[in-house]
Specification:
This protein is mostly helical and about 60 residues long. It has three helices and no strands. The protein has a domain at about 1-35. It has helices at about 5-10, 15-25, 50-65.
């Protein structure tokens, strides 16, 4: 069965079929395990301190209304 036919049978796109086929060829069954959807690095992500300050400000604003 071709990667395209397998993808169609599973309801996935042709591109997904070929991407998974390539991953399988490079790393076997283990390469098909679920992967993280977020990148390993997020250079533009704000610091945890800033994130907490933003969340606190949102909560205060929500309680004020």
């Amino acid at each position: 069965m071709s990667p395209q036919a397998a993808a169609v049978a599973c309801g996935a796109s042709r591109a997904t079929g070929y991407r998974l086929w390539r991953r399988y060829q490079e790393g076997g069954w283990a390469a098909l395990a679920d992967r993280r959807s977020t990148p390993r690095r997020q250079p533009r992500r704000c610091s945890r301190e800033l994130e907490q300050r933003i969340l606190a400000a949102r909560e205060m604003r929500r309680q004020a209304h």
